[in-house]
Amino acid sequence: MPGRDDHRRVRARAGGAAGVTTALAVALLSGTGAVARVLTSRALGEPAHRGTLLLNLAGAFALGVLTGAGVTGDGLLLAGTAFLGSFTTFSTWMLDEASLPAAAAGRLLAAATLGGAACAAAGWALAAAV
C-alpha cells in the first residue's frame, strides 16, 4: 500500500511549481489541439475518414518537424504530446476504419501507416535541412 509521503515524492520529481505549470500547459494545449481537430474536421466535411486521415498526416508531418528541429524536453512534451497528441486521434481513426467496408478499411490503414511515416520523415528532413 502506498505510503503517506508518496505524493510528496511525486511532486518533487515533477519539479514543484514548474511541474504544476507544465501540467497546466499540457492540459491547456491538449484542449486546444482537440478543439483545433474538431474545427478542422468540420471544415473538411464528409466523408469523415478522409478528414481524420488528413489531420493525422498533418500531425505526423508536424511531429517530424519538431524532432528534426531538435525540440526536446518540455517543448516536445507540450507541442508534440499535448497539442499534436490531441490534434491527431487514434480513437477517431479506429472508429472511421470500423465503419468502412473491409477493402476500404485496408486502404485507409495502408494510407495512414505509410503516409504517416512518409509525412514524419518529410517533416524531419525539412526541419533538419533548415
Automatic annotation (TrEMBL):
One of its GO terms (biological process) is monoatomic ion transmembrane transport. It catalyses: fluoride(in) = fluoride(out). It is a multi-pass membrane protein. It is found in: Cell membrane. Pfam families: CRCB. Keywords: Cell membrane, Ion channel, Ion transport, Membrane, Transmembrane, Transmembrane helix, Transport. It comes from the Bacteria. The keyword Transmembrane helix applies. Its main location: membrane. The chain crosses the membrane at residues 20-40, 52-71, 77-96, 108-127. InterPro entries: FluC (IPR003691). One of its GO terms (cellular component) is plasma membrane. The keyword Cell inner membrane does not apply. Belongs to the fluoride channel Fluc/FEX (TC 1.A.43) family. Fluoride-specific ion channel. Important for reducing fluoride concentration in the cell, thus reducing its toxicity. This is Fluoride-specific ion channel. It comes from Paraconexibacter algicola.
